[in-house]
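Lab notebook, bench 4. Still working through the backlog of constructs that have no structural model yet. Next entry is a single chain of 316 residues. Request: give me the structure tokens for it.
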Amino acid sequence: MSRVAVLMGGRSLERQVSLKSGARAEDALERLGHEVLPIDAGPDLVERLSTLAPDVAFIALHGRDGEDGTVQELLDVLGIPYTGSRVSACISCADKVLAKHVLRDRGIPTPDWHAFSETAFRELGAAQALPAIEERLAFPLVVKPAGQGSALGIKFARTAADVPMALVSAFSYDRKVLLERYVPGRDLAVSVLEDADGEPRALPIVEAVPNEEDFYDFEARYEIGRTRFVCPAELDDELTGRASELAVAAYRALGCEGFARIDLMLHADGGELDVLEANVVPGLTETSLLPQAAEAAGISFDALIARVLELALNRA
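Model written out:
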């Protein structure tokens, strides 16, 4: 058995979700017989890791520092193996704009978009380009910060009058935002988990169906009762296969390792699929999608945690 540091909490806006994910992982690791060292990541993280000298780190940090390569770089410096993707994939996936460029360059479909930094708006007059962007993308638009997860800061802009406030909201979360063509359809999540040989496999697809909202926002994702999850999603075999193949292709293109969740949109008109984004540290809460997909595949929560840890140790 191993000494496992479970990294959770941190200072991102997803702190509370991270603490829940970390607590569930901690409980599972203890049931599996490991010595668990829970760490709420803060300014003393390096000191604590150096003192505790764990065999491996289980990363349950969501959002800033946990998914953007920051903690992964620290762990590399300290020589501590860790779960999930390496630094370069974390950087690519954490920045939605960069991820979309990677996907587009590899021929993987993703909704059209335009992105701006806060500097471009304040100092280069980017606001004057908004009418042209709105004409190209058409309404409604999705306005989102480039670097947040869990649907934080995402707003609908149904008309041009909605865009300024949506941008203000997005810029409150990140210094770069993107305006993305809205694709009406079904919200699908494909979790990818590598097998013992390191081959990525798509788990059963989860469809998120908000009970009342017309948009799958942060509250709908994490408050029990706000969203109905269907797993496996009610799709025919051909569509299930295409969605799974697309998710694995995106996983490979972005350089993910171990496991990840790829979010897709199934177009309401015609059955086309788009990749929206990738999450390298999927949630492990009671309403999170990765554990639901694993359970549908016959993988218990403890077995899922064991697999993720085994992959990290094997890579080391």
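Notes after review: Residues 122 and 233 are 44 Å apart (CA to CA). The two ends are 15 Å apart (CA to CA). Flag for follow-up if needed.
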